[in-house]
Amino acid sequence: MSDDMGLLRTDVEIESPLHEGDRRLLTGVLVDTGAEISWAPAAVLESLGITRRKVFSFRQADGTVLERWIGFAIIRAGGTYTIDEIVFGEPNDLVLLGARSLEGLNLKVDLVGRRLVSAGPKFAAIAARVATADRFHAPAHMEPVATPYFERLPNAFSSPATRSASASTCFAFSANCS
Q1: How many CB atoms lie within 10 A of CB 173?
Q2: For 108-117, what is each residue's pLDDT tens digit?
Q3: Cβ contact 16:27 at 8 Å
Q4: How far from chain centre, in Å, is Cα 144?
Q5: Which of 40, 117, 155, 177 is most buried, by the most CB atoms less than 10 A from its CB?
Q6: What is the C-alpha to C-alpha distance for residues 170 and 178, in angstroms, rounded to an integer?
Q7: pTM strictly above 0.70
Q8: What are the boundaries of each domain within the chain?
Q9: What is the CATH number of domain 9-118?
Q10: Residue 92 in 3-state DSSP?
Q11: Tens digit of each residue's pLDDT (9 = 90 or more) over 60-92
């Protein structure tokens, strides 16, 4: 039986935002959705000219606390890239692709296929307010649109049972909310 059962490893490229184009390939990086920040060997980050910016404290599973320097890097994996904080790892530290980098890359883990896949479209906040006219006064540059908010949502929200007589009104920046 493999020691890597349930684990995912991937190749990651790191580059400095100040020296784009100069990259280092890290192979077999552990994808760790439980780690908030990505970790790379300090020697690799320093060779790219990535600057140590601040010190973070990390609590390990056994309760011990360790401190590591953090810098900013462009992280490439799964055919996409993002900029994120990255830990300057010391010789015995794991090399990790963390959850924040995965979010920035818009990737998620497919453990059955043992790969990273697109997380799909991200949610976007539209310029809309859910409020009643007596509690919300739109700025002059916002035009009120009289389409009830729930009538514009997917079918799960469009039945009369989920709408009320006091359905909210959409206020959008010169956008058609219908």
Answers
A1: 12
A2: 999 889 999 9
A3: no
A4: 33
A5: 40
A6: 9
A7: no
A8: 9-118, 125-178
A9: 2.40.70.10
A10: coil
A11: 889 999 999 999 999 999 999 999 999 999 999
